[in-house]
Design goal:
Number of domains: 1
Helix content: over 70%
CATH class: Mainly Alpha
CATH topology: Four Helix Bundle (Hemerythrin (Met), subunit A)
Radius of gyration: 15 Å
Structural class: mainly alpha
Order of helices and strands: HHHHH
Number of helices: 5
Distance between the termini: 44 Å
Largest sheet: none
Number of strands: 0
């Protein structure tokens, strides 16, 4: 079975990046996918590209939800709760975008993805 380019990219990234760097890379990719849909809103394949981008974002945030729900997760409880609440907001927004498509509705999810990715890339001192 052939591997999709995205899966090949993700697998390559897993081999060469730390956990935080990998999370930042995946969040950036998720943001880029949504940004491309937003910037090409009138493209004939928009619905297909939007569905792909939304599904990818949902998978990314579902992974975070699973990780953050684990009682063994080392992050402080308050931070885990805040990120989980943010993920619920993102889920709702993505469903809203699919039900009532509007390019502006993507902006907040794009911004969140890029901002969290930037935070993950910041060196902890």
């Amino acid at each position: 079975m052939l591997q999709s380019p995205l899966n090949a990219y993700t697998n390559m990234q897993k081999e060469s990046l730390s956990g935080r760097e990998l999370e930042a890379s995946v969040l950036s990719r998720a943001g880029i996918m949504l940004k491309q849909v937003q910037e090409n809103w009138d493209a004939p394949d928009r619905d297909q590209k939007m569905l792909e981008a939304v599904k990818f974002n949902q998978k990314v945030w579902s992974f975070f939800q699973a990780e953050l729900s684990d009682p063994e997760n080392p992050l402080p409880k308050k931070l885990r709760e805040d990120i989980l609440n943010l993920s619920i907001f993102i889920d709702k927004r993505l469903f809203e975008v699919m039900a009532y498509p509007d390019p502006e509705k993507l902006s907040i999810v794009i911004d969140i993805n890029f901002n969290i990715a930037a935070g993950l890339r910041t060196k902890m001192e």
